[in-house]
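Table S2 (text version). Query chain:
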Amino acid sequence: MKMKQKILNNMVYIAVVAVLITTTLIGMFTYYRYMESDKDSDGYVTQEILGKDLSSTVEKLEVKQFLRIGLTKEDSYGTYSYYLNGKEVSAEILDCRESDSIKVIFKVKDGLKIKRGINFFASSSTGTKTFNKGGLINLNNRSITFEDLGITVEKKE
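Corresponding structure-token output:
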């Protein structure tokens, strides 16, 4: 009985080793085949690009800068509402493109009034300002503040 058990153990051992070797070989074959096909596709794409006039291709691409702007919701002067390309935004940080448009609606707090400013009416309690390409780039990586609106506020009499 001991001899049969030893033979059975050796056969199981050989079978396990054979399965492991076969799995390893199949894995290596698949890996190298995948890597070789990846190189061929990259070479093809590179060859296609190099075969064309690169300067005309680059000129046709429109590169846009992405901007990150903080949106102040409230400060000591009033409250702010924001619209990105006509849709209201409720986030505190806005990721946008330089080609986007941000409209700010500012409402002064009770007891204050707008004295003067672009797109703001004197004695009014609300006003709007739109930031487009140039104005948005100046706001990149910072928050929109009261000073960016270009207005003066005074106490109501």
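Notes on Table S2: The mean pLDDT is 77. Strands lie at 66-71, 78-84, 87-89, 93-97, 102-108, 112-117, 126-131, 142-144, 151-155.
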